[in-house]
């Protein structure tokens, strides 16, 4: 094996070790940023919401739970608005705007409810 291949292999191995340590730190239940990570992941499609729910169930954080409830409420609101014939055309746009606003608040460590229904979502889904 040439010296160049050994260097490449060593660099790849070091990068893999660094990545593994970063993953452990990011998803560590004792990490204070874990709630923020859960909150942000919850906004990334329904699959992201499910992943965030599973992550939060292992180590509940108030911040992560807050945004799991908010995002679930937005998804349900979008589904209900999508059924209504005239409003259904705009339901997607409304939900995308609400998700973006909620995501920005989560990224800035602010627990701000969405306009109108945010407080209701917190009450309705308090078991999450």
UniProtKB/TrEMBL annotation:
<feature type="transmembrane region" description="Helical">
    <location>
        <begin position="37"/>
        <end position="55"/>
    </location>
</feature>
<feature type="transmembrane region" description="Helical">
    <location>
        <begin position="76"/>
        <end position="104"/>
    </location>
</feature>
<keyword id="KW-0812">Transmembrane</keyword>
<keyword id="KW-0472">Membrane</keyword>
<protein>
    <submittedName>
        <fullName>YtxH domain-containing protein</fullName>
    </submittedName>
</protein>
<keyword id="KW-1133">Transmembrane helix</keyword>
């Amino acid at each position: 094996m040439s010296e160049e291949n050994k260097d490449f292999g060593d660099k790849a191995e070091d990068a893999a070790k660094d990545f593994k340590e970063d993953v452990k730190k990011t998803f560590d239940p004792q990490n204070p940023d874990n709630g923020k990570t859960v909150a942000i992941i919850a906004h990334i499609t329904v699959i992201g919401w499910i992943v965030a729910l599973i992550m939060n169930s292992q180590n509940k954080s108030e911040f992560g739970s807050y945004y799991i409830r908010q995002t679930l409420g937005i998804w349900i609101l979008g589904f209900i608005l999508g059924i209504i014939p005239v409003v259904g055309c705009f339901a997607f746009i409304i939900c995308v705007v609400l998700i973006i606003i909620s995501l920005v608040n989560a990224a800035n460590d602010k627990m701000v409810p969405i306009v109108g229904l945010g407080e209701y979502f917190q009450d309705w889904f308090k078991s999450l």
